[in-house]
What does this fold into?
Amino acid sequence: MRDACPWTERYLQVRAATLELAAPLSDEDCGAQSMPDASPVKWHLAHTTWFFETFILERFEAGFQPFHPAFRVLFNSYYNGVGDKHPRPQRGLLTRPALAEVRAYRANVDARMAALVARRGNDAALAALLELGLQHEQQHQELILTDVKHLMAQNPLAPAYLPPPAASQPGQAGALDWQRCEGGLCDIGHQGDGFCFDNELPRHKAYVAPFELASRLVTNGEYLAFIAAGGYADPGLWLAEGWDWIRAQGIEAPLYWARNAATASGWDAFTLHGRQALDPAAPVTHISLYEADAYAHWAGARLPTEAEWEYAARTHRLQQMFGHCWQWTSSSYAPYPGFRPAAGAIGEYNGKFMVNQYVLRGASLATPAGHSRPSYRNFFPASARWQFTGIRLAR
It folds into this structure.
């Protein structure tokens, strides 16, 4: 068990990192919501604070009093066991509290948490919830970046969240090789004593038939070839639901791409640095499961299962497994054999979302350090594209 001082230091480091992500933004930037799936930065700042106040201070702090009684509803995300929630699509309408009051909320809770940890930092139950709260906040750090990118992309001025990077030449993608994986009866799920989320457990046996996995991710240039070959116009490549989706939405390229005859590839893409010429060698990102599956069919391959991906990540040296983009798998998000959510509202963290979603593996360029491991299970609906999602082929 950690003593109080390291807990306090780590707590403050994680909390400060969240504020650093908000630092380049104006108050107006922090209050806007670009779509129901995304949240305002102000809401992220408040909700992560709400987590510590609701699940830790309310339980462990002597004489607990909430910072503001209304915040229990305003900044509850999806915990039905806690009580009522403000509708998710209307988070951008919360002009009050102002950003300054949300920052005051964070400072108040941080001070109370520091005092609590100084007194009870060796309490096992407190330590477990503190670890979960910090991991939860780091998940929201990634969401801040993806939500800000989506917000900025709606602005005709194409504002940059960060200064443009130093000028550089487009990269060169290495050859795509196929790595043979023998498979067999293997162990799937988290191992060791480090932190994991409940959906990574229990570790269990799974049979994986022999397969091959691509040595690297699919590139923008390779995806351009799919577009040029009429991939978005060929219904034979698409799942029926995916075909209906691209037709209804008028989709003909990954999210944030736009045609630009002035660039070498004929396309550019909106990035956290503003609009940039498309780099053909970079991994293709911001695509749905539907698009990933259609591309795989066009390429004469398929998407890996999550068990195949984890097996390969543990046993083979492959490029770009972590730190570039989340990689779609063909596996529906479901509980592992023997999975049991925790008791109470905290048990709503992952288990109740195990329906109508698909698993992604790896980690993206927006993923905080410590959240890249072979057993980590990300999950989104098949149509989700605003996250850094990409393709690794299997066969």
Remarks:
- The first strand starts at residue 178 and ends at 181.
